[in-house]
């Protein structure tokens, strides 16, 4: 699957979002190290902290199916007018946990591909003292 196809899957996933409070629909699509593809969309809740980001839904679906490494993730907000939307800090941290190497940020009919290290600076794992 090429980057354009993955970006389109993220756009398609955003159309399935449950976003009655913000009307801010986000979709994600990812490819795991084993080559499987998973998608997700944001799912809002009136209790906003219970809301789940589209990127997180895709990652959680992959991990719950036994995947352990994610190679690339595309994220699309089909309601963003002015500029592209990057994953939030919590989503970036979750992506870091599972080794995402590249992130495709989709905006309208275009997209940009970034190295994950540029999306989440200082993503080195912290070692705790025993």
Plain-language structure description:
It is a single chain. With 130 residues, this protein is α+β, with helices and mostly antiparallel strands. The chain has one domain: 3-Layer(aba) Sandwich (Cytidine Deaminase, domain 2), CATH 3.40.140.10. Helix content is 28%, strand content 25%. It is built from four helices and five strands. The chain has helices spanning 3-14, 54-64, 89-97, 116-119, and strands at residues 26-32, 37-41, 70-77, 102-107, 110-115. A five-stranded mixed sheet has the order 2-1-3-4-5. Strand 4 and strand 5 form a beta hairpin. It starts with a helix and ends in an 11-residue tail after the last helix.
Question: In a few lines, what is going on in this structure?
Answer:
This protein is α+β, with helices and mostly antiparallel strands. The protein has helices at 3-14, 54-64, 89-97, 116-119, and strands at residues 26-32, 37-41, 70-77, 102-107, 110-115.
**What is the H/E string?**
HEEHEHEEH
Helix and strand composition category: alpha+beta
CATH class division: Alpha Beta
Number of helical segments with 4 or more residues: 4
Mind telling me which CATH architecture this is?
3-Layer(aba) Sandwich
Largest sheet, order of strands side by side? 2-1-3-4-5
CATH topology: Cytidine Deaminase, domain 2
- Beta-strand fraction estimate: 15-25%
